[in-house]
Amino acid sequence: MTLRAVLKGWVDHYLSDEEAVILLVVLVLGFAVVIFLGRMLAPFLTALVIAFLLQGAVSWLERRHVPHLLAVILVFLGFMGLLLALAFILMPLIWNQLVTLVQETPRMFASGQQLLDDLQARYPQLITPDQIQNWIATAGRELTQLGQRALTLSLASLGNVLGLIIYLVLVPILVFFLLKDRERLVDFILSLLPRKRTLMTRIWHEMDSQIANYVRGKFIEIMIVGTVAFLTFAFFGLPYTALLSVMVGFSVLVPYIGAAVATLPVAAVAGFHFGMTDEFLYVLVAYGVIQALDGNVLVPVLFSEAVNLHPVSIIVAVLFFGGIWGFWGIFFAIPLATLLKALVYAWPRGIKRHRQDEGGEVVVEK
């Protein structure tokens, strides 16, 4: 079989239907807009995600016979209250602990050097003085680079104050109108699409509930894991409790990798604070229990309706979409991977089913 015949068979199989071509164009345009105009449209995309997250609460109130506008106002006021609490309570606490951690870095570095000296004295055959010096030099370079990056980030952030103000003003306004005029906006978007959109409608209905469940479930998972980590670290008297618990909460955004990365700072702070004592071991065991319960109990409960994806697919999706869109790419890596999987499985079958519904002849490939 020639290459031309193979390409013709592939095109006939996947792009022989007008609706499939239109769906492909819509997907390519959507990805192109996000890739090339994502920074410019970041406030709108952020508001869209938040509105998507809050729509479940609005629908819940409407099912209890609350008028649409009143439901939107109540949910929006709750969102603003949570936003103000984060801005005036949690963020200053995290910032103060971060400043304290930076100030304590030299003392922690000295403690780590003393720990290495003690290990070398106990196990002279396993750890040599040259290895210790190499480790200390490497750690010193990394700390120096980290300090330079922090200084550069702080200086660059001075010019982003206006952008932050724009976010704080525009995002809540956009969230309110996206919730209030949701039906009108959806009707407008549908009016731009062709009337013949059976395949697009079916894929959208399949993905809409899954993405909504994922976004809300991921938010609930972050809140639960972060809160439990905060209470656990506070119980053991671990310093920088708020900073570490926020980091542990957001680590659930990156499956498999996030938990491993978050373990390092937790173990480092616990080791420098408690030393190699029983308390240090208790903190690590408690942190391991939190991660185990999250992966084996909380995730199956929150994401029971999610499409099953292989771990390799999840990691590749996180790396790919995170490299393209940063934080939001990591956050939506699993839904986007699920969307691609749904497209791959539904595209040819959806076209054939659509033709069958119209009374056309369906050719079953062997």
UniProtKB/TrEMBL annotation:
It comes from the Bacteria. Its main location: membrane. Keywords: Cell membrane, Membrane, Transmembrane, Transmembrane helix, Transport. The keyword Transmembrane applies. It is a multi-pass membrane protein. The keyword Cell inner membrane does not apply. It is found in: Cell membrane. One of its GO terms (biological process) is transmembrane transport. GO terms for cellular component: plasma membrane. The chain crosses the membrane at residues 20-38, 44-62, 69-95, 161-179, 219-238, 244-268, 280-302, 314-347. Pfam families: AI-2E_transport. InterPro entries: AI-2E-like (IPR002549). Belongs to the autoinducer-2 exporter (AI-2E) (TC 2.A.86) family. This is AI-2E family transporter. It comes from Halomonas alimentaria.
